[in-house]
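Fold this sequence, please.
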Amino acid sequence: MITVDGLFKKYGKTLALNNASLHVEEGTIHGLIGPNGSGKSTTIKILSTLVRPNQGDVSIGGIPLKKGRAIRQQIGVVPETPRLHEYLTAHEEIMSYARLSGLDKARAVDRVSVVVKQLDLAMVQNQKISRLSTGMKKRVALALAMVADPPVLLLDEPMSGLDPVVRRQFKDTILGLEGKTVLVSDHDLYTVEELCTSVTILQQGRTLIEDNIDSLREKVGKVSVEIKPQDPAQISNLAAELQQMSRVTSAEVEKDRVVASVNDPEKDIPEVIRMAAIFTEIVEARPSKISLEEIFIKLSSGGDRT
């Protein structure tokens, strides 16, 4: 659905994007991550037709970037800092945007009603935007992106500044979108890991790696099993015992449990748990996966990229 190849963008002497690539499959939620200055926001701006690249092939839904008007009909955008008309009510803002998007009056009324309900804005739709909380303003911004019912959503730092409760609600809303292709650009790797099934990692304007998150875990990470013995005095002894197993690549003590890393989770984890239970009585055993943050750190420091 989104295809980017050989993308270059310079701002004066600064090379923001240096042969970057990005591929997002239809109907997926894809993360675009990287440190500050890696080119995430520039990529979003190019896809939004706000900035022209110096070089590269870009298309959305098979439509080349040079057909800007057709591209804009395919996308809904939530910028990092939404600029809303504070003097309008939420309903007026969404309705105005619907009409500016080319919807006729009847269609606009219908779509505004749909997104107001979908994003739980009914209680505040008649309040001026200036009186809304940060979380509600973010919902209004998402409503603007969704009101014309585009197939693609581009979300730049969509949950920054939200409190935990609103963050959870916002996350559930994004995950509940059906039939949409969503690109999420965020520096918060926890947010991306919650929302996305695949990622593109940018570094210094280049694509470091692009893959399914689970596949990345297999390639650069390791799956572990956490085992908590009933007797805390046995933790060090249990770690030493498990470290001797050929199936275990490492066994480390973390607080009240042992974390044993393995290469083949399906075969190795049951055997490690069985051996631990023979050695001492255990009260908890559960697998744990390497986090996206750990993957990012390992790749950024020059780890395995195969």
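The mean pLDDT is 90. The CA atoms of residues 75 and 152 lie 5 Å apart.
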